[in-house]
Amino acid sequence: MKIISKYAVALVISYLLFAWLGCKKDEIKFNLIAPSEGDTTTFQGIYNIERGDSAYNTVFLDFSKDQHPAVLRSTWDLGFYCGTADFRVIINNAVGATIVQSDKTNLNDVTLADSTATLFSRLALDATGDPTTIDPVEGDSTAYLAGTVIKAISAVSSENKVYILKRGTGTTTAYSKWIKMRIDRSTTSNGYTVTYGNLPDQTYRTITVTKDASFNFTYGSFATSTSSYEPAKKLWDISWGISTYKVTETSKVRAEPDFVQINFMGGVTAAEVIYGADTTKNYSNFAEKDLSGLTFSGKRDVIGTNWRNLPSSLPGTLSIKNDRFYLVKDKAGNIYKLSFLGGGSRGRPIIQYKILQATTTIQ
After folding, report:
1. Total domains, the chain
2. Can you tell me the distance from the alpha carbon of 318 to that of 53, in angstroms, rounded to the nearest whole number?
3. pTM of the complete model
4. Which range of residues forms the domain containing residue 97?
5. Rounded Cα gap, residues 310 and 304, in angstroms
6. What residues are paired with 179 via a beta bridge?
């Protein structure tokens, strides 16, 4: 019995020891990662030797991580909304793509006869561009999704119309300009299936894209099927590049260089601060205490091209308005002030940003 007792005591001690070590091992330490204090950086819009007003790249910026990747804006044709509540598809605003809906549901029924001279004129994106052939250029995320030219994709395939797409102006890629396509909900995944071909043809290919909740949109290309363009929605705050936008003096649209878009689909908001001659409230002097009373907007074009002057002729030099700067509230609630007065050149502007109000996040 004594021997048994010794073993019993040893077993109990061993059990308690392993249990204690196990608890120690399971302890998790979280490191509090402070967001970036700010930086000065140059947007690398120029890909090769193109003019600054035709910069081939779109540049994305994440303030809190000081990351600013540059991506060829011609790498995609269609963007597929990843939200759970709706099935929406956008066209490439960065290359001036335009699109119209036909009255047909069968691809074979759409021929060159459907692209009349009138249609060619409507799909020309210049100072006479038709705003009904592009996705919204302003507004918040709700208005944007509600206004896409491609209507909500129905679960009933026979209700989805054929669209005629003019792919826009390529950068480093030469491709067929005119595409006919029909988009359905995928039957094999939570996503989309695109059946498409060149406008005169009756042979077709398909692209299948699955929704990914980490992104605002996943992207597809008629050249490569899938495409990496916009970073995950938590990894960018603003983008800079070319975008379709309204012509101020008319109701028309055109491709606009130097356009700054906030991540309005990902919850980023911004405010414009015009200080004029009151230099006590300029970028350098503006502090956290000055935030009181300001209203932040979630509209796509809250910054837009308001930060620079339109040159009298192209390509033009970079002329920056010296009476304003911007405040950007990122998805985590950090607030940064942003200035374009760093200078630079068209296609390579220098921007400055500095944190005003930080919220510590656990990573």
Report:
1. 2
2. 9
3. 0.87
4. 78-227
5. 12
6. 165, 198
